From TrEMBL:
GO terms for cellular component: membrane. Residues 9-26 have a biased composition (Low complexity). Residues 37-164, 177-310 form the EamA domain. This is Permease of the drug/metabolite transporter (DMT) superfamily. Residues 1-26 are annotated as: Disordered. The keyword Membrane applies. Belongs to the EamA transporter family. Keywords: Membrane, Transmembrane, Transmembrane helix. PANTHER family: ACYL-MALONYL CONDENSING ENZYME-RELATED, EAMA DOMAIN-CONTAINING PROTEIN. Pfam families: EamA.
Amino acid sequence: MDARKTLTAARRAPSAQAGAPAAGEAPVPGSPLDYGLLALAVAGVSMSAPLIAATAAPALAIAFWRNAIAVGVLSPLALWRHRAELRGMGRRAIGLSVAAGLVLAAHFGMWLPSVDMTSVATSTALVTTTPVWTTLLLRLRGRRQPGLVWAGTALAVAGVLILTGLDLSTDTRALEGDALALGGGIAAAGYMLLGSEVRRTATTTAYTFVCYTSTAVALLCACLVAGSSLGGYDAGTWGKILALTAVAQFLGHSLLNRVVRGLGPSTTSTAILLETPGATLVAALWLGQTPPVAAYPALAVILAGLAMVVMAGRRG
């Protein structure tokens, strides 16, 4: 009788599969906690552009240091308290995490220089096309998206264009900057998809440690090749780099890595569109840059598009 009960319980127990929750984490997909953390993540990445604009250092060096400092902070936690999780990731998860780090480095390496080559408005509009590429890449992988996802994504991108004004130029250097910004948006989509795949089995700490380490190494190589100065900054510049690491890297990217498992890449990448009005608000309060009149209706359009994607995800 006891053996029969044991066999029945074993059959009812969830199997260890690729989609099982990562060890030590058991969030409910689409839970209020996920959405709350997503809001904090958007607030964090919204600080990125204003802080970068106020930091007197090369763009590639800023990107390198924000990742290198993040790795330095994560190392004791990952290598001591989470070393068992790192060992248990497996070759596939580690390989995908490294790939995600390289794609994230490509995102930083293309987008940040584009700001100096084309207008800020065009660069922002093109790099935040991430949800479009996320949806297309998911479709190429055989995952058919509901019409509500496509409609919501298009509406949210339209809101960004309303806010920034897509002023494409015929200048050769500006067109190169436009291409880099667009490439940065595509790279961000790849980063989001790779992260969502790894996060099916790996914890946030293990994934972000491997990912950020790969990003820092790749950006260090890029800085050395480009001749970007990695030091000699004043105390104020270092303070802004530390602030950028805290709010944009840890509060922003790390929380995005945390919630992408529950919310999925479509909802998470669409929410990143809120970075544009968020950065506009921060610039208005901190740098004295008055937001355009279109900022308020554009924010409403972006929120409407995001709501459509979220509803499609919850129905799915």
